[in-house]
Amino acid sequence: MPSHGGLEIFRLLIKAGADISMRDDMGITPLHQAARAGDCPILDMLMQHGADVNSQTKNGRTPLIEAIAVDSDRKPHLLVTTMLLERGADVGLTSSDGRTVLHEMASMPQKRLNELDINVVSLLLDNGADPTARDHNGQLASDLAARESNTKMVQVLERWGME
């Protein structure tokens, strides 16, 4: 959960001229971290100050991919995803293994899938995510969803892929 103190620290750092695009040794920026944490106030502040919504880590992960990253202890962040898309996040960028944000979403284990997750998939598709894109292993997002027994996600992806 985001803290008010963290937001104030970011305000002070930005005011002091801190580089909001600074990367760690993996290429992770503060925007990647805020997206992954679901910290909307910090995410918004960083974007207002010019943070690159399409910045990629060394393995090609974008803030958008981080926003929906598959972790066992949390769900995708619909609001963060929406904020990034509104600022021009590119749904077609791929990670080093050729996966788009849609591939990452489709890899979510079925037991974690809920209606909110389907809403995120629909949002990605509405914003140009390509359900026919293949990763470096030749897999479609629907292939990954089927592997995870995500029947509802497979249906949504296949319906979009036929349009």
Automatic annotation (TrEMBL):
Gene source species: Aspergillus wentii DTO 134E9
Residue stretches of each ANK repeat: 26-58, 59-96, 97-136
Segments crossing the lipid bilayer: none
Protein name from the UniProt record: Uncharacterized protein
InterPro entries documented for this protein: Ankyrin_rpt, Ankyrin_rpt-contain_sf
UniProt keyword annotation of Repeat present: yes
Alphabetized UniProt keyword annotations: ANK repeat, Repeat
SMART domains from the UniProt entry: ANK
